[in-house]
Amino acid sequence: MEKTKQALLVMDMQSTILGLLSDTTKLVADTSKAIKTAREKQIPVIYVVVGFRQGMPEISKNNKAFSSIKQQMAHVDMQGWSAVHPDLTPQEQDIIVTKKRFSAFTGSDLEVVLRGLEIEHLVLTGISTSGVVLSTLREAADKDFQLSVIEDCCADGDEEVHRVLMNKVFPRQAEVISLDQWAS
After folding, report:
1. Burial environment of residue 28 by CB neighbours within 10 A (0 to 12, 13 to 18, 19 or more)
2. Does residue 2 register a pLDDT over 60?
3. Which of 10, 28, 79 lies closest to 51, judged by CA?
4. Closest-CA residue to 177 (of 145, 147, 156, 157)
5. What local confidence, expressed as pLDDT, does residue 60 receive?
6. Which helix (H) or strand (E) holds 175?
7. Dihedral angle at the C-alpha atoms of 24, 11, 153, 127, nearest 10 degrees?
8. What single string gives the DSSP state of each residue in 89-115?
9. How far apart are CA 91 and CA 151, in angstroms?
10. What backbone phi and psi angles, to 5 degrees, belong to 80?
11. Are 145 and 104 in contact (CB under 8 A)?
């Protein structure tokens, strides 16, 4: 049986978003190791960042989750806000995709990039487990991608939500693995 072509998705690992958690040292170190492993295995690394135009015209007042931040961030420098954490800086060969909502697919060209690279299997990492990871996993499953989630490379502000998703929800559509399992 032919091995499917994988891509590692590093999602929402922006300094501004990581700053919402109390301690991200281990998460950043583990994600860095996952990125290093992907590069060694010649697996494409795709960074997914959430970003908007200045003033956030993409956000409707009807969007409960995003509209609350629109007023607070109307004058924020969006380029700086979307910057990936310095310990996870993309390299020249890496791909950066900008999304407009929780799912990595919404408002981005991610699916076109994945189809162009003939990717069939997505390996998911990111913050937050209940945001980008959950939304991307669900949409990717509906698009018939094979899925793995590296548990050590995901985090959520609510530990119980993270645990329930990893142990009860994600296994229905993805393989939940440790960083050591994936790196071996």
Report:
1. buried
2. no
3. 79
4. 147
5. 73
6. strand 175-177
7. 50
8. PPPTTSEEEEESSSSTTTTSSHHHHHH
9. 24
10. -65, -35
11. no
